[in-house]
Each structure stands twice: as C-alpha cells, then as structure tokens.
Amino acid sequence: xxxxxxxxxxxxxxxxxxxxxxxxxxxxxxxxxxxxxxxxxxxxxxxxxxxxxxxxxxxxxxxxxxxxxxxxxxxxxxxxxxxxxxxxxxxxxxxxxxxxxxxxxxxxxxxxxxxxxxxxxxxxxxxxx
Length: 129
Description:
The protein has one domain (12-127): GTP cyclohydrolase I, C-terminal domain/NADPH-dependent 7-cyano-7-deazaguanine reductase, N-terminal domain (GTP Cyclohydrolase I, domain 2). The protein contains 4 helices and 4 strands. Helix 3 (63-75) packs antiparallel against helix 4. By secondary structure, the protein is an alpha+beta fold. The relative contact order is 0.20. Helix content is 29%, strand content 29%. Strands 1-2-3-4 form a 4-stranded antiparallel β-sheet. The chain has helices at 29-34, 49-54, 63-75, 82-94, and strands spanning 12-23, 36-46, 101-107, 121-127.
C-alpha cells in the first residue's frame, strides 16, 4: 500500500554554530555574579531558492545580522534556565518571516556539576504556526 502522506523534501537550512558570549544566566548567586561562557547553535529552516535564483541577500536570512541579534539576546538580561534562554533565542530567529522553523542548542560548558563533563546543553525546536 502506498504511503498517503505527501513527500516533502528536507527544508533548506542555514546553520550558525558556536556563537559565544560571557553571560550571567543561572539559578545560583555565584553564576549571576561571576557569569560564564555560553554558546549557541542555531539551525534555521527556510526556502533559499528565491535568494539563490536572484542572487539576492534580501530574499534570505542575513546571517551576519542574525549573529548580532542572537549575541545580544545571549548576553542580555539574565534568566535562571537554559530552557528560557533557548526560547528567547528561538524567538529572535522566528522574528524573521522567512524562517519556517529553528533548532536552538544552548551550551553551558562551564556549569558546576561536581563531576567531570564536556558540556551540558538544552536543545529545542520551534516552528512557525
């Protein structure tokens, strides 16, 4: 029996990895006082065909501008949870009407866990309704 769902090709993606900022997010007072390094990966889903066809930056996401906006949000007002920060960053990406969906990963490699580790991260996916 044939699959009744329409085949949808994988969407085009623009990826920005390892955007870093020193920030003061966290639930503990020492995290708020000292701050630490955070990094973000953002994977945007959008149709890049119009931009490619016209070789026109106005028809795609300007990743240099996006990087500036994400950095401002990352280094901005402190929040307790990485989940909250990830949502803030997803909202920045989805503010661009060309972005259909976004995956955000927030890394907190200097978190104090009391055991050796490489990284702790929260990853979310949000789609335009």
